[in-house]
Amino acid sequence: MQVHADTPSMSNGLPFMLEMDVDVAEFSSDWGNCDLMSTYVSKMVSTDRTDSLLFANLYSSAVNELFETAFRVHGENGSLVCKFFRNGNLDRVELSIPANDAVADFYAAAIERTAAPNANEAYLNILFQSDAIDPALGLLELVLNYGAALQLREDKQNQRVCIVAEFQLEETATKS
Known about the structure:
This is Ubiquinone biosynthesis methyltransferase UbiE. With 176 residues, the chain is an alpha+beta fold. The protein has a single domain (2-167), classed as Heat Shock Protein 90, CATH 3.30.565. The chain has 6 helices and 7 strands. Strands 1, 2, 3, 4, 5, 6 and 7 form a 7-stranded antiparallel beta sheet that branches. Strand 2 and strand 3 form a beta hairpin. Helix 2 packs antiparallel against helix 3, helix 3 packs antiparallel against helix 6 and helix 4 (101-114) runs parallel beside helix 6. The protein is globular and about 40 Å long.
C-alpha cells in the first residue's frame, strides 16, 4: 500500500489531504484490510477536529462502509485508489476501483437505490434479512446514517468506476 500526503490537488473546490493506493487483489485478500485502512485514515485526518476522538470514530465508520462495499464488489485487476479531500467541515472521499460492466452496473444501481424514496425501508429490509448480505448495504448506510451524498463516475475506456462520497460529520470545522 502506498500513502501520499503531498500531492497538491483539488476536487470540486476541496483541498487534497491524503491518497491511498493498493492492489485490489491484495486489498480483497483480507476483510480486515477495510478496518485497518479506515482506522489509519481517520487518525490522519482527525487531529484538527473539535472532538478528534469522536470525529475519528465516525470518519472511520463512514469510510469503512465504502471499503467494505469495494471489498465485496470490484473488478479483478488493478489498483484501489482512495483520495481524501476537505474544506472546513465538508469531507469528500473518492474511491476508484477496477470495474467491468457488471461491477459498473452494480454501483450505478446501488447508488440509485440510495436516492430512492424508499431507501430507508430498503435499508431496514437488507439489514434484517437472514440471507447473504446485500453488497449495497454499506452505501445505504453511508447515505442514511452519515448523510452522505453519493455519485458515480465511470471510465469505461480504463474499466474503472469512482464512487464519490461527500459528508459532514461535525458542525464546527476545527479547534479554536
